Amino acid sequence: DSVSQLASLYAIPNEYDKMLSIIGAKGTNAYTWVEQTVYTNDIPSNQLETWLKIEAERFRNPIMRLFHTELETVYEEKNISLDDDGNKAWEALFANLFPTHQYGTQTTIGTIEDLKNPSIRKVIEYYKTYYVSNNMAICLSGDLDPERTIELIDKYWGNKQPSPVPEFIPSVEKPITKPVEKEVFGRDAEFLYIGFRFPGAGSREADLVKMIDMILANSKAGLLDINLNQKQKVLSSGSFLVDMKDYTAHVLSGNPREGQSLEDVKKLILEQIELLKKGEFPDWLLQAVVNDMKLNEIKQLESNRSRAHIFVDAFVRDIPWEKEVELTERLSKITKEDIVKFANENYGNNYVVVYKRTGEDKNSKHVEKPLITPLEVNREDKSDFLKSIESLKPEEISPEFLDYSKEIRFEQLKNNVPLLYRKNQENGFFTISFTVDMGSNHNKKIPLATSYFDYLGTSKYSASELKQEFYKIGCTYSLSSDYESVNLTISGLNENFLKAVELTEELLTDIQPDDQALRNLVNDILKIRADNKLNKDVILWDAMFSYGKYGPRSPFKNILSESELKSLKASELTELIKELLTYRHRVTYYGPEDLDKIIDILNRLHVKENTGLKELPEAEKFDEIPTEQNQVIVVDYPDMVQAEILLMSRKGLFNKEMVPYINIFNEYFGSGMSGIVFQEIRESKALAYSTFASFTIPKRKDQYHYNIAYLGTQSDKLEEALTAILSLLENMPESEASFNAAKKQLIEKINTERITKSSIISSYLNAEKLGINYDIRKDVYEAVKTITIDQLSSFHRENVKNSKHTFLILGDTSKLKISALEKLGKVQFVSLEELFGY
Fold first, then answer.
1. Over the stretch 729-785, which tens digit does the pLDDT of each residue have?
2. Do the beta carbons of residue 701 and residue 653 sit within 8 Å?
3. Which of 105, 501, 513, 603 has its CA 20 to 30 A from that of 209?
4. Half-sphere exposure (Cβ direction) of 48: Cα atoms closer than 13 Å
């Protein structure tokens, strides 16, 4: 601790983040896993050379002076993982699938004992050993010229020297000859993992397992989808691959229904593998799986980030690029006979099953925090290197603001149904949505109806057969709802657009009630409700957040009671589904089909008769309560190592004049690694693993702005962390250098942001909800150029300082210092029943 204090005098924190702000980068992050450490950025194309210069300097010879506070952050991350039931189950699965390989013998973050004995010297040795040119790749995708890009990489990275990297000889695992069964415990809902082990990525075996994975579960027509999920034999089940360089893990998962044991779920899942081994799946499914993969590839390749990560995966797994891009071609040559033969030879009793049971974890541990003296954060000094970056003048990129009248065709179908149309000129993918502005606030039965829809068919097709028909043509359909709207969405290959719409319209007009499916669904909903009361994320971000915003009467609790659920008739819900699109609604289409053809198809199949549409019913009104005095709401979550704290304060109704100030305030103060909150709370004081503050912009013009702040910290740091965040909210530190960097970053983001494809329609609809008919980014761009730090300070004084707060605190109350909370305001202990309404 004392050495860190001395070292901090020689450091200027966050210079890297400041430089990335200057060039307008976003998405700055890093992650590490079993075989890779990856640093990610989304950068403007005109800043490519500057970015390469920054990265070359960062990786050239990093001086790691703020080691101590960052180590505390890793302690926090470890404690978070120890609170996480999913993480416990995952570690148990890999430890037993790979008892000798590092995949199972060590975790990415390390053990408690590892973390108790840190060595900065060994960290530096690790860097010097592995961060060498022959062990690294730069993966780029975007608006760039390949030849010029390679020249620039050579200019800035050409002197990065290669060095022999210690050879990694993977352990050869012994065959698993009988089922390995393990249990882990925690408060979350029960589930299980079943894992099989195969050779690594790029192998013939890995290709076969990819096909088997999709035959078992593709979310529509796999054996698990049809035989277990669709038939409601389990709450949910799934299949996925973890394809690493040395080995591939095929993992199957399952969640039990009420009264069902994990052993029952395991038996049902393994029965589907037996059907696979007997070849009891339709012949057409293989080609449909390949087509589905091609469709997913089309969607994935629309994103620069996704393309770059395909490069990352190929590099990490040591797969030649030509082999990577021919994957679907190879898979298309795999026959049913190949699948059945491989499954019989490789899927037997050679699996590991981990049962995650609900109960006390008697082996629970946590990392004790070391002594941490807060570091002084120096915001004003600049290194010579930072000054050199600031002095660069790259070719400017001008912003592109949307003109909705030019980007979207606004048309009318029969019955005055509005159609928003935008042509997809990139590929053969379409998506069409039918939206009714009527949700659970209008009718509590709507969420149940939209869930029930998934289990229903027609007089011609059962629900399972209908899903298979859609899968055959490379399309999918779904019905979803929220508090305010219902969305029917169809998407897929545009060559089958007509067939997909015909099938969907047939379903809407000829939907058949299924009494048993409804009884099963009601029981599953009751089970999910019980499970939600065990889920920390749902408790905090749904139940507690809603309670803080609305009080005891909220849209979150506006649900059908158990008796209401059980008394509903199947025919009531099918009639409700049939009626949904007889109300006033709109249609949005993004795809390659010509507008005239879309209008013709929809007028024939969807609107049919020009008889008028029903007006929407009135919604139930839920008032957002004003924050007139400090109040502390505490919810007990036993055995939780961390405490999660959310502060919220209601402000005025939506005001578009505030939007530019909100954007610069959030950029400077509360968001990202270069923000004041992150620097002070995490980097200087090491008081939280995750923290942020935000002045929110509502979704609708009749909703309120909120000032919110979040802390995820150890229970014993609660008082100190709260004191620190409240101090920042009351007294925003002023730094001209940080403000100018935040301002420049916001301007550069807008300069280089491009809203494209179907997002243009979404952008318009979001603006419409706020009563705006233009791209509000234009207001932000013009205003931010002239906003000064004094004006920002005025915004803070008028909207943040001296605020009253609702403090939402989730943690183990036996570990929380309640006397410290009582200093903040009246403490109210709220039960889960009060939060959830059941």
1. 999 999 888 898 889 889 988 998 999 999 999 999 999 999 999 999 999 999 999
2. yes
3. 105
4. 18
